[in-house]
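Design a sequence for this backbone.
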């Protein structure tokens, strides 16, 4: 969509780039905000913890991104999130999934003053800021000009992916999971796995691609982002998400895979061999990630009928997520 690109390039001014990096715009799950690990406070009680959803009251402030003001106030965003009930459904499902954790985890939507979402190891809480969704709306509606309804859908999808990203941080901490590699990349993959577990594949893919588009817009506006950041650069992050979606159904998503492969190769080093090679890896990576997370999480689920000796089943990618030991989520 050339007109969109032209519009974005027009907006790619020094001021906006400056704002991007220095106005606290980068949310935690998108850039550094000091996720300092503290000692795991998990107790040895037999309590089975729950996720507790809260929508904190909000002012009628409008989030501002550089010189662009959101069209919807934080209060309107709060109302919309409540009305969609998408998070009620996610939290209910998490709480009935058979997952055993020994503490309650509040999932708090609130006004923060900046666009952010984060897991706080000290407060033991997942926070998602209304401004996080406001920024989505600015990108999808103010900048790219998707019609309002479509922009809302994309923004809520991106917010859901952001939540699952934070849930990944939370579970690595709360369950003391032995997750290796860059945690930010790991929890992006976790979010994808969770979405493909929960939703039908086309819905899950849509959500992940909306999140990928979010990073694409940031990439076009502000470039890759600073190299010191613990998060992968925007172009890498957008492509990693596309790679997994492509791996889930190569036939269906080949076109978008090629399109983004070319997009993130500004020096045009792309050739067919390289594309084929990366495509083959994406096909392998998707089932690998599904399987790896299943194995990591399975020991934390209640067994059915008290059968603790059920062998861990290795599940193929995108399997229904059910075993004798419990239901994956
Ligand atoms: Zn993060």
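Sequence:
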């Amino acid at each position: 969509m050339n007109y969109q690109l032209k519009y974005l390039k027009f907006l790619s001014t020094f001021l906006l780039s400056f704002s991007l990096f220095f106005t606290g715009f980068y949310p935690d799950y998108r850039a550094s905000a000091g996720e300092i690990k503290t000692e795991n406070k998990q107790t040895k009680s037999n309590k089975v913890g729950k996720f507790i959803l809260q929508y904190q009251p909000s002012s009628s402030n409008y989030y501002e991104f550089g010189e662009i003001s959101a069209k919807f106030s934080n209060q309107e965003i709060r109302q919309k999130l409540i009305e969609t009930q998408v998070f009620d459904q996610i939290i209910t499902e998490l709480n009935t999934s058979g997952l055993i954790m020994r503490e309650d985890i509040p999932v708090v939507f609130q006004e923060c003053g900046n666009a952010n979402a984060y897991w706080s190891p000290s407060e033991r809480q997942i926070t998602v800021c209304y401004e996080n969704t406001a920024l989505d709306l600015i990108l999808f509606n103010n900048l790219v000009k998707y019609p309002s309804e479509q922009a809302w859908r994309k923004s809520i999808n991106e917010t859901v992916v952001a939540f699952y990203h934070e849930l990944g941080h939370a579970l690595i901490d709360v369950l003391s999971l032995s997750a290796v590699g860059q945690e930010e990349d790991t929890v992006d993959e976790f979010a994808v796995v969770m979405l493909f577990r929960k939703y039908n594949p086309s819905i899950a893919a849509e959500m992940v691609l909306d999140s990928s588009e979010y990073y694409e817009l940031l990439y076009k506006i502000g470039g890759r982002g600073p190299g010191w950041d613990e998060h992968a650069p925007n172009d890498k992050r957008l492509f990693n998400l596309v790679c997994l979606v492509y791996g889930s159904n190569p036939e269906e998503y080949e076109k978008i895979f090629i399109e983004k492969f070319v997009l993130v190769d500004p020096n045009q080093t792309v050739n067919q061999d390289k594309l084929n090679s990366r495509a083959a890896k994406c096909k392998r990576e998707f089932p690998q990630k599904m399987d790896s997370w299943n194995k990591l999480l399975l020991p934390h689920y209640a067994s059915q009928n008290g059968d603790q000796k059920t062998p861990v089943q290795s599940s193929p990618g995108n399997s229904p997520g059910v075993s004798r030991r419990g239901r994956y989520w």
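Confidence is low (pLDDT under 50) at residues 1-27, 30-43, 305-329.
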